[in-house]
Design brief:
368 residues; alpha/beta; Isopropylmalate Dehydrogenase; 2 domains; ten-stranded mixed beta sheet; two-stranded antiparallel ribbon; 12 helices; 12 strands; 41% helix; binds nicotinamide-adenine-dinucleotide
């Protein structure tokens, strides 16, 4: 198995607590599976601000550019709410995404059988669900110019601009088709080609990339509003969904809710391939720093552990080990282990963050 380097940035709030469990998982793969990962650790967010006066030090940024993958916990917290915008913890995260040019955001929505009753949808709609949303992350209406609030006549006007170049669409489409080939070979592209020119171009470019280089993958197109409806009606019809930054923001949150708790949701942000062929990559749980439960042993470490599973699969060429880790998570959930965020009405008593980690390590041991 190839050697690999990983920079861990635990961040703030529950970030360090969930990351401690990931470190035990990484150590397990080193000891028991011979997976040699060179792990380094640094500060991001409020923790970096406390030490360096900025949410991400230049040296940390340089390290992130060198490693095979970054794994981030979470940033933010009430202590930093009143800082200038440029110093807020989230700016550290945005700097990483921007300077590493992480243009493709992968958000899986996977429903573990033991949690199917946790969804707001009926069990048969979500049980066994396994879909992936690929959201374009570095362009579109969140970045397009002109933008701002301007005076116009005797009132103000707020402007944002949806803008996509062919190459930006091309690379997002490619990452979706590549992923689909490792999954069930189906891509659904979502835009609003009926009312937006950027949507017309999006559809054309995705189709062209498909026809030229990925004819083996099944491709369909859907308007994003219809897609939102289909995601809640019968999400299992999808495998990979590829969409722009704005629609992806909304659609991935809808997909997230199909599966229950924020504490379960991993993500990956990928960029262009590096010299060694691996994509630039940052992995992180979808949740934030959860200041309301920080320091109490209540955080669910699964989202961060599953983010590491994504790193195994997409950065470390260790798909079989990623399967093993995901199966271990499935096992502990089936055994009834629940952090407080996963408690239903059934009178199960909750386990702590560390106990959840213990359970996953035991399930990994049992997998050998
Ligand atoms: P949050 O995700 O931190 O928390 C929302 C709710 O979900 C809280 O009740 C929290 O206790 C719960 N929760 C979240 N993760 C959990 C886990 N692993 N286990 C159990 N429960 C969990 O969102 P928020 O409260 O809106 O934001 C808190 C701080 O986090 C803010 O400073 C915000 O800016 C920041 N934030 C950071 C990120 C990030 O680092 N990627 C993302 C979102 C929010």
């Amino acid at each position: 198995m190839a050697d690999a380097s990983l920079l861990i940035l635990p961040g703030d709030g529950i970030g360090p607590e969930v990351m401690a469990e990931v470190r035990r998982v990484i150590a397990w793969f080193g000891d028991k599976r011979g997976l040699k990962i060179d792990v380094s650790e640094d500060l991001v967010g409020g923790a970096a601000y406390d030490k360096h006066g900025v949410p991400l030090a230049d040296e940390t940024m340089a390290k992130a550019q060198e490693v095979d993958a970054v794994l981030l916990g979470a940033v933010g917290g009430p202590a930093y709410d009143n800082l200038d915008f440029s110093l807020k913890p989230e700016r550290g995260l945005l700097r990483l995404r921007k300077e590493m040019d992480l243009y493709s955001n992968l958000r899986p929505a996977q429903c573990f059988d033991a949690l199917a009753d946790f969804s707001s949808l009926k069990r048969d709609v979500v049980a066994g669900l396994d879909i992936m949303i690929v959201r374009e992350l570095t362009s579109g209406v969140y970045f397009g110019e002109p933008r701002g609030i301007f005076e116009e006549g005797n009132e103000r006007v707020g402007i944002n601009t949806q803008r996509y170049t062919e190459s930006e669409i091309d690379r997002a489409a490619r990452s979706a088709f590549e992923l689909a080939r490792r999954r069930n070979n189906k891509v659904c592209s979502m835009e609003k080609a009926n009312v937006m020119e950027s949507g017309v171009l999006w559809r054309e470019v995705v189709q062209k990339v498909h026809d030229e280089d990925y004819p083996d993958v099944e491709l369909s197109h859907m308007y994003a509003d219809a897609g939102a409806m289909q995601l809640t009606r019968w999400p299992k019809q999808f495998d990979v969904i590829v969409t722009d930054n704005l629609f992806g923001d909304l659609l991935s949150d809808i997909a997230a809710m199909l599966t229950g708790s924020l504490g379960m949701l991993p993500s990956a942000s990928l960029g262009a391939p590096m010299a060694n062929g691996r994509p630039k990559a940052m992995y992180e749980p979808v949740h934030g720093s959860a200041p309301d439960i920080a320091g109490q042993g209540k955080a669910n470490p699964i989202a961060c552990i599953l983010s590491f599973a994504m790193a195994l699969r997409y950065s470390f060429d260790a798909g079989a080990e990623a399967d093993r880790l995901e199966a271990a998570v499935e096992t502990v959930l089936a055994q009834g282990l629940r952090t407080p965020d996963l408690l239903g009405e059934d009178g199960v008593s909750p386990v702590t963050t560390t106990e959840m980690g213990d359970g996953i390590l035991a399930a990994l041991d049992a997998s050998l």
